[in-house]
Task: structure prediction
Amino acid sequence: MMRRRSIALAVTLALGAAVSGCAGEDGGASKAADTCSSGPVTVGYLPKLGTDPYMTTLRDGAKAAAEEIGGEVVYTAPSEATGAAQIPFVNQLIAQKVGAIVISGSDLNGAAAALRKARRAGIKVISVDSDVATDARSLFVNQAKTSELGAKMLDSMAELIGHKGEFAVLSSTETAVNQNAWIEDMKSRLATDPKLKDMKLVTVAYGQEKADVNAQKAKSLVQAYPKLKGIIVPAGIGLPAAAEALSQTGDLGRVKLTGLAPASLIKKYIRGGDVQDIWWNVHDLGGLSYHAAQALAQCKVKAEPGERIPAGELGTYTVGERGEVVLGPATVVTPKNIDDFEF
Result:
């Protein structure tokens, strides 16, 4: 019995020594999260939905980065866009013993406990595109500053409707972290910016990350608000669906659209002048997230403000407050520059 206790104690001490040699992450994870890899690791990507072309393009960018610096990408996703639906997939990635998880959070806290479990298991956790609770991840790789995206969508709508009239927002889900932040920024500017004093946000609707729901909601908004002049759709699935729906009903033109979506999916509507788009290089976002995951897994960075993350051909990026790493400014896509966007 004494010999068994001695062995158990020795193992415990050895494990403690093994995980104490690397610098720690924030207080949401245990000492086990200090594990450092000596080389490239397998990175598990967990989007809100696996069929979203935005997320599959992001995945392809990550795979391209893996070919450049080594390691592997695995991609797994739920069939509905909720934090709860992401939990079993986090657990699956833990069981696979990936070195890092890159997640686009369906909400802040839905999968947070599972992500903290992953960190305790020594897996590095990064959010991309849509954040999760800060104590459940180390870095947030953002496409652009949150306030910038909200402002650009609002300015785009203002330009389309002549800075005057009613407009609506057709978001994804009630719990979507990034969309909710953009909408709050829009509301704040509407209340304070004199240039927008003649614009009125009449309602916020939700398309539930489904093309058919977004199409129906867009039609319903036009019917419910006869004076509606525009709809902001900050969702990659929603904007193409809304554009197609209003084109079919003959309302596109009288009602303008802007938001976030792969520019290639709405190219013909942008060319027509009734739709604008706020966009960035999604492939690069995937690549940056992969470089960040590998740097974190190998303890080349500790997710502290001011640290620099090398990202190959993309350049070098700085870790900001709360672990945010920003790809760069987004672009308003119009008929003049639509051909610059392959996706």
